[in-house]
Amino acid sequence: MPLRDRRNLGVATPGIGRHTLRALLNRLPAGVVIFNSDACLFCNEEATDIFRRLGFFPARSTTLADILQDLFDVQEDIDASHLYFKRVVGPASTHVDVEFSVIDAGDEDLVFLILHDVSELLEHRETVVQLEGLQMVGELAAGIAHEIRNPLASIRGFTQLIRDARDVSSVQTHTGVMLEELDRMNDLVEELLQLARPRSQQFEEADLVGILDSVVFLLNSQAILNNCSVVFSHRNEMPRVPIMCQSNKLKQAFINVIKNAVEASPNGGVVRVTMECVDDWVVVSIEDEGPGIPEEYRTLTGRKFFSTKEHGTGLGLMISHNIVQQHRGTLTIHTDMQRGALVQISLPIYGSSA
User: Which stretches make up the Histidine kinase domain (predicted)?
Assistant: First the structure.
């Protein structure tokens, strides 16, 4: 007689007959095995199939200890209520998740074993991990292209300005900035080479006013080519705002945001960059006079590969958001179809309680 056909389930269930209960348990997608202290009382069809896939064929007199010893290689007294095991039978591996539950049946305790064959789930998970790995490679490539394109655009802009320059001093200024941008590209390549040997990132004290001055100066060449301008002012007239940061990364965050504002600006438009200290925070606002972001797209801003620009990757704003978060700051976007977009970046002032 098959193990699952034993007459006594050993479970008193008011209102439900044993045959009905047996039918219900056999319809479950999980394996169910019920033991008392002497033997196995019930084994549903799914559990029998799982045992067969494991190459294990328990007899009717099989006890819980027998199964535990044969399948799990453990001793009789088990403290854990949950086990996971893998068994190789032939060319395939079977992965089973097992849960224990003890139920007071009145005159004796019954042990319920719930078996889940998770082999297929793990195979799917491996496939997903592989696909995610490929997706990460694609995202990394897109991110590299985006990060390199910004310095290239700046270098191109300054090259055009040098071509039209009439005095040596302006040429020297422009070539100095071009060298800085080439250094930034070199830093990016160096970071990629260090991926296999990740190192801790060092934060140092820096002046946010100086960082923004250099970013605005850098992007004014592109603004001129776009027939617009970038104006920077800070309302508190503080000569210096100390913050703890990675200057190159924070500079990249501001470049991405201000560059978006420049590209969105109309002919003759002005991108206003203002800075204000509020309590222990410094708030940098970047406001443009562009068309703003349509309402149906506002919830998508900051997502990878979403951009309202024809050839945009959508990575710039996402990268900026991540950098600001790494600096314990926030980045928020306010947009109006009539008044353009306003991006606010808040950062803790060094030495404050923020």
Answer: 143-351
d(CA 323, CA 345): 11
Same domain? 350 vs 219: yes
* pTM more than 0.90: no
pLDDT tens for the chain, 354 residues long, are 344 444 445 444 555 566 777 777 777 778 888 888 777 778 888 888 888 777 766 665 566 666 666 655 443 344 455 565 565 555 567 777 777 777 777 777 788 888 888 777 777 776 666 666 666 666 666 666 666 777 777 777 777 777 776 777 777 777 777 777 777 777 666 655 544 444 556 889 999 999 999 999 989 888 888 899 999 987 666 778 999 999 988 998 999 899 989 988 888 899 999 999 888 999 999 999 887 765 544 444 444 433 445 444 456 777 788 889 989 999 988 876 567 888 999 999 988 665
Domain that holds residue 72: 3-117
Q: Please, what is the Cα angle at 216 between 214 and 219, to 5 degrees?
A: 105
Q: With beta carbons less than 8 A apart as the criterion, state whether 187 and 248 touch.
A: yes
Do 263 and 304 have their domain in common?
yes
For residue 327, how far is the Cα from the chain centroid?
Answer: 17
Total domain count, the chain: 3
Q: What is the CATH number of the domain that holds 249?
A: 3.30.565.10
